[in-house]
Amino acid sequence: MKTLLLFIIINTNFSATKTVYICNSGISKKYHYKQDCRGLKNCQFKLLKINLDKAKREGRTLCKWER
Ligand SMILES: [Zn+2]
């Protein structure tokens, strides 16, 4: 029982701090779950790892390759 509770707590924490990858080009409005996504291959700028919630607040949408 104790183990199950611990598992739930860890899971909740994980979803709350989910991070995504973005291309810091200034014009990109996409976010990516995978760092090696083909949508990021063309990125000529720095890759940033940010919070999923933050990405959504900035108006970013999930990259077309990962839908
Ligand atoms: Zn992607």
Features:
two-stranded parallel ribbon, binds zinc ion, elongated, 67 residues, two-stranded antiparallel ribbon, 21% strand, 2 helices, alpha+beta, 4 strands
Protein model, in words:
The chain has one domain (2-66). The protein has a two-stranded antiparallel sheet with strand order 1-3. It has two helices and four strands; from the N terminus they run H-E-E-E-H-E. The chain starts with a helix and ends in a 5-residue tail after the last strand. It is an alpha+beta fold. Helices cover 31% and strands 21% of the residues. The longest helix is centred in the N-terminal third of the chain and has 15 residues, at 2-16. The protein binds zinc ion. Zinc ion (ZN) is lined by residues 32, 37, 39-40, 63, 65-66.
Task: Summarize the helices and strands and which ones pair or pack.
Layout: H1 2-16, E1 19-23, E2 30-31, E3 47-51, H2 52-57, E4 61-62
Parallel strand pairs: 2-4
Antiparallel strand pairs: 1-3
Bound molecules: zinc ion.
